[in-house]
Design goal:
about 0% strand
């Protein structure tokens, strides 16, 4: 499976990114697949279906990724791939027959109290949630930038930038030649900042 995923990523992104980013994306994607597969191993995921879902997630990343938002490609890809694997797992947990009947019934011509069809209501909800998610991402990015510019030490800034780019704890420790204690202290400090502002972000 590793070889297949690596080849898919190469075919989709080799003309879009540098060789270093391409290798990082390949390794990161494979790591996410293995991690999530272990977490939900009790579902006995079909390997071919899993590869298909990851492939579709990568196509989604390529289509939707916006350089202007200044989010690292690897971090964005990690986010999308993980979500799509979890979506696939949720699908497997459902009773397909009950789900189909529920969808048929809910999208008939019945109206809500506001005079909308159930389909119109769900479209409105999706649009709202999508906008809300974008606003939260923007707020979090601004919070991280503020922390880097005003509170973080030089080492903390390096750690956080690598975290944001999708590097793992082990990769950061080895690259910066620091102790695990230094990494955890930085992560805890950043966590406290997020907890402090969490109420404001959750209300966006």
């Amino acid at each position: 499976m590793k070889t297949i995923i690596a080849e898919i990523i190469k075919s989709e992104f080799q003309n879009e990114v540098t060789p270093d980013v391409l290798v990082h994306l390949q390794r990161s994607t494979i790591k996410i697949i293995n991690t999530e597969d272990q977490k939900i191993s009790y579902l006995r995921l079909d390997k071919e279906d899993l590869i298909t879902n990851v492939y579709l997630a990568l196509k989604e990343v390529k289509q939707k990724y916006d350089v202007d938002k200044k989010v690292p490609l690897v971090a964005y890809a990690n986010f999308i791939i993980k979500r799509r694997i979890l979506d696939y797992a949720k699908f497997l947990r459902r009773d397909k027959r009950k789900l189909t009947l529920k969808m048929i019934n809910s999208y008939r011509s019945n109206l809500t109290e506001d005079g909308q069809t159930f389909l119109e209501r769900d479209i409105d909800r999706y649009s709202y949630e999508n906008e809300r998610e974008n606003n939260q991402i923007k707020a979090i990015r601004e919070l991280v930038i503020h922390f880097l510019e005003n509170e973080a030490t030089e080492l903390e800034a390096k750690i956080i930038k690598m975290l944001y780019k999708g590097f793992s704890q082990k990769e950061i420790i080895e690259t910066l030649k620091i102790k695990r204690k230094d990494f955890l202290q930085c992560k805890e400090k950043l966590k406290k900042v997020f907890n402090y502002f969490n109420k404001d972000i959750s209300n966006i």
